[in-house]
Amino acid sequence: MNQSCRQEGLQEGRRDEAAAMTLRLLNRRCGPLTVATTAQIQALLVEKLEALADALLDFQGPADLAAWLAAHTTILA
User: What is the pLDDT of residue 1?
Assistant: First the structure.
């Protein structure tokens, strides 16, 4: 395995872990998430996941999550 492949694997693992932790915290703060919301969060880059993890500490419920996602993500058509 070359260095580039190893680095990609490490980045993907880091993103997967950040997504899993953020989803666990969001489920506790906002209640069960929809499949679409979960997929949207899993698709975020690490930097966005870290920003979401920080922001969710101030969330009062699902409306705050929806507003954050609307403001910080774009949907490709």
Answer: 60
Q: What is the DSSP letter of 1?
A: -
Rg (alpha carbons) of the chain, rounded to whole number: 14
Express each pLDDT in 10-50 by its tens digit. 777 888 999 999 999 999 999 999 999 999 999 999 999 99
Sequence-separated (6 or more) residues with CB below 8 Å from residue 62? 30, 31
Q: Fill in the amino acid letter for 35.
A: V
How far apart (Å, rounded) are the C-alpha atoms in residues 29 and 14? 22
The DSSP output letter for 59 is: -
Residue type, 3: Q
Q: Where are the domains of the chain?
A: 3-72
- DSSP string for 30-46: H-SPPHHHHHHHHTS-H
| Rounded Cα–Cα distance for residues 7 and 27 (Å) | 30
